[in-house]
Specification:
This protein is an alpha+beta fold. It has 16 helices and 18 strands. Bound molecules: pyridoxal-5'-phosphate (PLP). Pyridoxal-5'-phosphate binds at residues 273, 433, 436-438, 457, 459-462, 501-503.
């Protein structure tokens, strides 16, 4: 059992190497300049020089120091002071050396012009401006290396230059160029809006209408789940005789419905739930979107909804996310929730499959599911209400399933439990799902998740967990699992871990199962090691921290 996966991609390792080399170079430069200064400078100048150099140094740590990116703005601001000071000191040296043909006024003018140029050219300035204006100008980012080269040449021409300062400056500017142009974390901390227009994007079939009134973006620390929606939405209509037509991205807003619309009366509605992630490398990723669209068609088929073109739907979602990319939250654990849904709008109160429908996709920036780390939950084993029954719609993601589950959830929560464990609708004997998640039981010698037999939703996270666990060498069985078997194993100490799996939480450790007045504690109420490992692996893939060996993610260009 077991296995190992590298935490970093090859590119990340290479860039980490560049960053480390730059840190070493910068340290060497700091040491050498301190040695030089101690020979002929005041203690204040030495301290200032050291602080300045350390500020420069810290910047290199930022790309590999993700959790602390909120300090980026301050460090960039501090760092902005460095190049002008270096240039100023060069000029002072020049004037002191008596080689100054311009006189004091000419010197001040030249210094001011140089300062301004350096400010405008430096990527720190543009990144800082990007942070303030929530935009970034990637194109100018590499220019800092040119400024460094100019400084190197200035030192060479006028300063008391040494061979090492020129070599160091050159190497550092080359390093900068590599980092800024190849590591999007630094060059694109805030996304530039790449506006899709009819002329310049491959969106010929998807009409685009940009909002004239962009909304204020919410505070990233108070996102919660599904409370805020972005500026745009995707719409497409189905009309009998015409099929699915007029795919379009339009401003987010109310949809007007006839009060007789079929979805309002008979719940002919299906939906999906997926996410876009802002990776630690600055890339935006979707996780297995083709699987979601395939499942949407499975639900469509069950609810007599005309099938959609899955490839078009994936492309539409990609374009919509791209359009509202500056809404994707960047803080740890946050993401952009994507909600595709289809509903019947026939204005006729009669029970029959609809001939007129709307496919809509909306986006919602959501907060971290576990702001304080993975928390085991207490689960109530539900043996009165059922979620679904074989032959029904349990395997489909239909709105009605969720309406039917509210009562049990409400009662369980009133009793102090987070969610319910659903049992099969016929014998109330076999385990099906937990809340709105699939469920896994880790026994001594096998991991079991209930087999999909018609009443369970086939989760994409479930499928991914099975693949990863099997890849790690675990024996994972999809089979009917009786509650009795779980309780017995729990009492005998053979039940090691239990967790739920789903897009929202990824994996959710279960610390206790309450059944018929008795509580079975699992993993001592703590998160199990395997659950944690699986969480780290899946979230690692989604946020670009772990190599995506299976090709599950799709980059949004
Ligand atoms: C009833 C139910 N089961 C399981 C899942 C997990 O599915 P997925 O992993 O695709 O999110 C969901 C998802 O939201 C769900 O609603």
């Amino acid at each position: 059992m077991g296995g190992s996966t590298s935490l970093f991609t090859k590119k990340q390792k290479f860039l980490a190497g560049v960053v480390c080399s730059l840190i070493v170079l910068e340290l060497a430069r700091l040491a050498l300049s301190l040695l030089r200064m101690t020979a002929n400078a005041s203690p204040l100048a030495i301290v200032l020089g050291a602080v300045l150099n350390l500020a420069l140094l810290l910047k290199y740590l930022l790309p590999v120091w993700q959790p602390h990116r909120k300090w980026l703005g301050w460090l960039l601001a501090a760092n902005l002071a460095a190049p002008p000071l270096v240039v100023a000191s060069s000029f002072v040296k020049i004037s002191q050396s008596g080689n100054n043909p311009m006189g004091p006024v000419g010197m001040i003018v030249l210094v001011s012009i140089t300062f301004t140029l350096i400010m405008l050219l430096s990527p720190q300035f543009h990144l800082l401006r990007g942070i303030i204006r929530n935009k970034s100008t990637e194109k100018t980012a590499g220019k800092f290396s040119i400024v460094m080269l100019i400084i190197a040449s200035l030192e060479l021409l006028f300063g008391d230059t040494t061979w090492y300062s020129v070599v160091f400056n050159t190497l550092i500017s080359v390093g900068f160029t590599i980092i800024y142009f190849t590591w999007p974390v630094l060059s694109r901390p805030i996304l530039e809006i790449d506006t899709p227009t009819k002329e310049n994007t491959p969106m010929q079939q998807i009409r685009f209408e940009r909002t004239a009134a962009p909304k204020q973006k919410p505070d990233q620390n108070k996102l919660g789940f599904g409370k805020y929606f972005t500026d745009h939405m995707f719409l497409m209509n189905y009309d009998e005789g015409q099929g699915w037509h007029d795919p379009r991205i339009v401003p987010y807003g109310p949809i007007s419905l006839d009060p007789a619309a079929a979805c309002l009366h008979y719940g002919q509605e299906v939906f999906e739930g997926m996410k876009a992630y802002f990776g630690v490398d600055g890339k935006i990723r979707l996780f297995r979107p083709e699987e979601n669209m395939a499942r949407l068609n499975l639900s469509n088929e069950r609810l007599c909804i005309p099938l959609i073109d899955e490839a078009l739907a994936v492309r539409a979602i990609g374009e919509l996310v791209k359009t509202d990319r500056d809404w994707i939250p960047t803080q740890d654990g946050t993401s952009l929730y994507i909600r595709p849904f289809i509903f019947a709008v026939d204005p006729q109160v009669g029970v029959r499959p609809a001939g007129h429908l709307i496919f809509c996709v909306i986006l919602s920036p959501v907060g971290a599911y576990y702001p304080e780390g993975l928390n085991p939950v207490k689960i109530f084993v539900e043996n009165e209400y059922v979620r679904a029954v074989r032959g029904g719609t349990g395997f489909a993601k239909a709105g009605g399933n969720y309406a039917a589950s509210l009562k049990a959830q409400q009662e369980a929560q009133a009793r102090g439990f987070t969610q319910v464990l659903w049992l099969d609708g016929i014998e109330r004997k076999y385990i099906e799902e937990v809340g709105t998640m699939n469920v896994f039981f880790v026994f001594e010698n096998e991991i079991v998740t209930p087999a999909l037999q018609g009443s369970i939703l086939g989760g994409i996270t479930r499928k991914s967990c099975i693949d990863i666990l099997r890849g790690w060498g675990y024996q994972v069985n999809e089979r009917p699992l009786a509650l009795e078997e779980v309780l017995e194993a729990g009492k005998a100490g053979r039940l090691k871990e239990v967790f739920g799996s789903g897009t929202a939480a990824v994996v959710s450790p279960i610390g206790a199962l309450h059944c018929d007045g008795e509580t079975l504690s699992v993993s001592g109420g703590e998160i199990g090691a395997l659950t944690q490992r699986l969480y780290d692996e899946l979230t690692g893939i989604q946020w670009g921290k772990v190599a995506d060996a299976r090709g599950w993610t799709r980059d949004i260009a």
